[in-house]
Amino acid sequence: MGDALKWIVFSTVMLFHASTAVLWAAEAPTLISVGPGTSSFAVSQSDLQGLQIRLDRIKQQVSQANNLSLMVGLQDSVQLYINDIDTLQSALLPEQKQLQAQLDVLGPLSPVEASAQKSEIATQRAYLSEQKRRVDANLTTLTELRSSAAGLIPQIAGIRRSLLEIEVTLRSASILGPTFWSPLFNPDSEDRRRLSEFVDQVQDAVAVAWQPGNRLVNVLLVVLALSIWTGGRSVADRGLTWLCIHCMPEGRLRRSSLALASVIATVLTAALAMQLLFYALTRQLPLTPMLQSFADEFEKLIYLCVMITGLSRALLSTAHPSWRLPTISDPVAHALEPFPRMLACILLVLVGLAQIANVSGMSSSAILLGRGVIALIVTLLFAMLFRRASKARRAVALGGDAPEASTTLAGLVYCAATVAMVISLFALLIGYVSLARFITYELVWGFLVLSGFYLLIQLLKDSCEYLFCAKNPSGKALKQLLGIGDTRLEQISVVLSGVGRAVLLLLAIISMFVGGVGVTLGQLFSQAMAILGGDGLRKLNVVPAHLLNAVLALLIGIYLIRSLRRWLDNEFLPKTNMDPGMCASLSTLFANIGYALVILLTLSSLGIKWTNLAWIVSALSVGIGFGLQEIVKNFVSGLILLTERPVKVGDLISISGVEGDIRRINVRATEIQLSDRSIVIVPNSQLISQNLRNVTLGGSAQGVASLELTFPLNIDPEQVRNLLYDTYCEHETILDKPAPMVRFSKLSPEGITLTVTGYVSSPRIVGATKSDLLFEILKRLGAAEIALATPAPSV
Which among 302, 261, 256, 257 has a CA at the least distance from the CA of 278? Predict the structure, then answer.
C-alpha cells in the first residue's frame, strides 16, 4: 500500500511538471526566431545626423553667447541633449545583450555548415551578426556624441565664470552721478525702439489670444488662474494642514510637516496658475523667440518669489506661533512678516523689467541702470529688515521676556549679510554696479537656500526621532523585526539623522556656490551630480546606481553576521565540548573575519576596481610604516591569541605586576579583570612579546595558601607546630594531597619563624582561604595563651 501511494504521488508530480513545461513552451516566445521581418528598436542614420546637427548648433551658440542668462539656457540645452542620448542608449543596450545571447546560443560556425552551400541556421547567424554590428555602431556613435556634449559643460562653466568676472569688475558711473540715471530720464532712441518692439509683440500675442471665438475660453482660463493664485493657496493650505493634523502624529514631526505643507501649497498653486496663464496666451499661436525667452526667465523669477513668500510664511508662522520651527519670539516674527512679501514684489517688478531690457537688446547703460536700482533697493530693504529685527529684539529684552537663544551659525550669517550690504552700497557709490547686483542676488539666494534646507533638516531630524522612537508603533515594529534594543534603535536614529543632515548641508553648500537667482532645481541637481560624481569617483568606478547595492550589502551583511554570532554563542557552541574561553575566541574570530568580508563585499558592490585603489594601498603602506605600526602589531597579535590560544577568556594570568582574569580578547587589546572588579586594558602585543604567567593554562592548576608567622623564643615549638598543622588539615578547602606542611623557617633574636603551607583546588580561592585560616589560627592561639612575637622598636 505504501509503495502504491508513493507511485501515485510520483506520477502526479511528473505529470504536473510535464504539463507546466508544455504550457511554458506554448506561451513563451521563441528565442531564436529573428528574421528579416522582425521589428526591433533601431536608431537610423538620419537620427544620428540630427543629433550631430543639434550638437553643432549648441556649440555654435556657445561660441557666440555673451550673456550669463544665455549661458544658463545653453547649459540646460546640453543637459537635455545628454538625457536624450542616455535614453537612446538605454533602449539599445537590452537589444545588444539579446542579440549577443542569441548568437551565443547559435555558437560558432561548424565545419559541416561551412561546407554547406546554404543553411537556415547560417542565414540566421549572418542576420543576427549584421544586426548586432549595426547596434554596436550606433552605440559607439552615441557614446562619442555624449562624450563631446559632456565636454561642453565644463567649457560653459568656464565661459560663465569669465563673463561673471568681466561683469563684476566692470566699472561704470556712480549712482550719485547724472550719467547713471540718464537712461531713465533721457532714454536713447534705440532703447525706445527696442522697448516698443517688445511691447508690440506682447500686444500682438494678447490680440491673438483675444480673437473672437477664443475670448470666453481664455477669460475663463485667466479667471481660473487668478482664482487659484489668490484663493487656491489658502484652500490647498487648509487641506494639507487638515491632512497633517489628522494623519501625522502629534509632536515635532507634525510641526515640521505643517511647515512643509505650507510651502508645497504655495508652490503648487502658483505653478498651476502660471501654467494656465501661459496656456491661455499660447493656445492659438506660439510666442515669438523674444517673448519665449522672456517667458522662460520670468517663470524662474516667479518661482523664486513664490519660494520666498512660501518659506517665510512657513518659518515665521505668525498665525500659529506653536507651529514655528525656529526659536523666534512673536514680536520679532510679526516685525519680519511684511519684508519677505515686499522683497518678492520688488524682485518680481524690478528683475522683470531688467529681463525685458536683456531680451530686447537694450544698451548697456539701460541694463546697468536696472542692475543698480535692483541692488540699491534690495540692499536697503535688507538693511531695514535687520534694523527692524534688532529693534524688536531689544523691545523683547526690555519687556522682561527671555531673550532668543542665539547660535554661532546665526551670528555668522548676520555678520556676513551685514558685510555684504556694506560692500554692495560702497560698490554702488564707486561705480561697480554689476558687483553690487551680484552681491544682492547672492543675499537673496542665500536666504532662500538657508531657509529651504533648514526646513528639510528639521523635517529629517523629526522623522528619524519619530520613526526610531521605542515608544512609537514604528519603533516597536522595528525592534520586533530586527530584534534590537532601545539603545541600538536610538543609535540608528542618531546615525541616520546625522548622515542625512550631513548630506543636506553638503547640498546646501553646493547650492550656495553653484546656484543663483533664477537657477532651477534641475540645474542645481545636475550641477550637484557633476560635482559629487566627478573624475575622482569616476576613476574609482563609483556611480550613483551602485550606492543602493552597497548600502543593502552592508546592512544585510552586518545583520547576517550578528545573527550567526548569536546562533553560535547561544545554540551551537554551548552544545560542544569546548570550554567557554575557546567558544568566546571562536565567536570573536568569526565576527572579525565576517566584518572584513562585508567591507570587501560593500566595496565590490560600489563597483570599485581594486586596480584603482593602488594609491590608497600606497598611502596605507606609508602610514603603516610610521603611525600605524603599533595598531597593526596589536591586530596581528590579537589574531595570534585567537588562533594559538596561549591565553583564553577566563584564564588567570599575571603580567607586568598585573594579575587577574581575562575578560575579553579584542582585535587590538585584551581586557583583564582584577580582584577588585576593575578592568586593565593590555595591548595584545605585550601578551605575545613579554613573559606571561598563565595560572590556569593546564586546566588543573592548584593554589598555594602559605602563611609565615613569628613567635617568641620561649614557646613550645611542637605545640605551635601541631596547632598550625591541625588548623590547616581541618579547613575544608585545604587538600589532603599534597598534605599541609609546617616548616621551621628562621631563628633570630626577634623570635622563631614558622611557615605553614597548604594547597587548594584553585588559585582563585587562595585569598579567601588565607583570610579564613588567619582568623582560625589567631582564635586558637588566643585559647592556648600563645602570643605572636612583638616587633622590636626601631631606633
Answer: 302
